[in-house]
Design goal:
The chain is mainly beta and 150 residues long. It is 8% helix and 27% strand. It is built from three helices and eight strands, in the order E-E-H-E-H-H-E-E-E-E-E. It has helices at 50-53, 86-89, 92-95; strands spanning 22-29, 39-46, 74-78, 96-100, 111-112, 125-129, 132-134, 143-147. It has a two-stranded antiparallel ribbon with strand order 1-2. A two-stranded antiparallel ribbon has the order 3-4. It is rod-shaped and about 115 Å long.
């Protein structure tokens, strides 16, 4: 004959086992009978969406800027995550900042405008020009000409 078990009340729900997104909470209750096992009950819990966590102050502070990379002429700093596996929840834009740096080994980008329209033919050739927007190393040609055709 099966024995009827008697139980204490349920414990409070435990903390959600996930920092963000869906997780599980459990609670237990003990049996008043020696030959009955403790019962456990679980339920799904929802924390704030993981993407919201990336905008909070929970990510920690920024590291110091790295030294300038000779290959990319940039330096980086990273967020020091305060929770496990932060990279799974937050995109690179929340975790890494990059900026250009200028050293003797890094050329400065030269930026120029688009070409002007062709000039009228001056007898033998016509020309077009463009302007420097940001001076830098190794700017392209600013003047172009072609022979006139009649």
């Amino acid at each position: 004959m099966k024995r009827l078990c008697m139980w204490e009340g349920w414990s409070e729900w435990g903390d959600c086992d996930s920092f963000c997104g869906s997780g599980t909470q459990t609670r237990t209750r003990a049996s008043l009978n020696e030959d009955c096992a403790t019962q456990t009950e679980s339920r799904i819990c929802e924390n704030k969406p993981c993407t919201d966590v990336c905008n909070d102050k929970l990510l920690g502070s920024w590291s110091a800027w790295s030294t300038c990379s000779k290959d990319t002429c940039t330096r980086q700093r990273v967020k020091l995550g305060l929770f496990h596996r932060v990279e799974l929840y937050c995109g690179k834009e929340h975790l890494v900042q990059e900026k250009s740096c200028r050293t003797r080994n890094c050329p400065r980008e030269c930026r120029v405008s688009g070409w002007s329209g062709w000039s009228e033919c001056n007898g033998r050739s016509k020309y077009r020009t463009r302007d420097i927007i940001q001076d830098g190393d190794m700017c392209p040609e600013l003047y172009d000409s072609i022979p006139c055709t009649s």
